[in-house]
Amino acid sequence: MFVSFFPQPKVFFSSAIVWSIVVVLFWFFGGEQLGATFGLPPATPGSPPIIGISVFWSKPYLWFYAYFICAILIFYAFWALYRPHPWQNWSILGSAFILFTTNFSVQVSVELNEWRGPFFDMIQKALTPPAGRVTQGELFHGIWVFLTIAFLAIAVFVAQSFFISHYIFRWRTAMNDFYVSNWSRLRHIEGASQRVQEDTMRFSSSVEDLGTSFMQSVMTLIAFLPLLAQLSHHVTSMPFMGPIPDSLVIAAILWSLFGTVLLAGVGIKLPGIEFRNQRVEAAYRKELVYGEDHEDRAQPPTLAALFNNVRRSYFLLYFHYAYFNVARMFYIQADAVFVYVIMTPTIAAGHITFGILQQIIAAFSQVSSSFQYLVNSWPDIVSLMSIYKRLRAFEATLGGGKLPELDIRYMQRSADDPDPA
User: Fold this and answer.
1) CA separation for the pair 6, 14 (Å, rounded)
2) Which pLDDT tens digit goes with each residue over 341-373?
3) Which residues pair with 242 in a beta bridge?
4) CB 390: neighbour CB atoms within 10 A?
5) Strand, coil or helix: what is 242?
6) What DSSP designation does 238 have?
7) What are the beta bridge partners of residue 238?
8) What is the pTM of this model?
9) Backbone angles phi, psi at 65, to 5 degrees
10) How far is CA 38 from CA 49, 63, 291, in A?
11) Closest by CA position to 118, among listed 340, 359, 349
12) CA dist 319 → 271, 324, 333 (Å)
């Protein structure tokens, strides 16, 4: 699954994590200020923020781009020399591009949050008598600033989505070539054709989606947690608890932790059921394919028994998803109003402006959704785990390891038992 696309995967991913930590720590402990040596100094403390699209080609941003590119090239050069791989351009440089555009999207969100403060304060000023304190030109200018940032976000999203589509197919190609070259050792495994033709695409797509969303969550936390801590100074009191330092940060962490534990517990059975569902579907499909070439296969009693397994598996899956969705939707709906609940004493006291309220709501939403990575991604994680279990039989066969228990049972019973589970 990974060795076909990444050089020496275990060492590669470990080194990527270590190198990322080193690069990030160096940035925060001197690397950011190092840009002044090259005429690209960081923003002066206390200076007003740049609101608008021009912030993305300001000197601090230009230095960050240069720093990121240097870090990636050093990492790429090491692996190109240490362990050359035919897919290293896509697996290393391609992953770096996805990482960069993901971080850029987070910075766009930060800039939009900066825009919200003065714009909604201007709205509040315009709606408060006497009239005429805000001109139409000022309002149109604020809207235009938003549109320029939004257009940039759209352009980055389209470019990233296009690139990711090719990235995923390259990964699928690498897995396909690897498995096809070992087809003689893999063909006896149940549903081998489906695993090569379909599961490789689903696996690469799922890993990329989950990996990108995970990195976006981490980057969002890095960008928005300090902002949320700063905005916590505007919160005078918490319901039933009174004043608490960094109240918004604490509330976001506790609320997200509650949702993660809740849904992880409620949905703990789903991966195994999803795996069984794919297995019975594969068995039914395989019998139909045999029936196209052999008259003695795909007989009505056999097909009826196999389809009955499919029906039972789906009905079981529907039942477990029913109570899972109840818990998930309950949490999502409660999440929509949770920030207003904790802000009630501050809003009632009138201690913040409309612009600051909008910034708090947006920042809290970004932080809480990042902490809720498992909540938002659980259905995709369930699907990925079931796909991983299917492809793991290939890995065990090629690596000389033990097949998963379900594959062993299938091979022992497939000759005389239509139920593969």
Assistant:
1) 12
2) 888 888 888 888 888 888 888 888 888 777 777
3) 238
4) 25
5) strand
6) B
7) 242
8) 0.71
9) -60, -45
10) 22, 9, 71
11) 359
12) 14, 9, 22
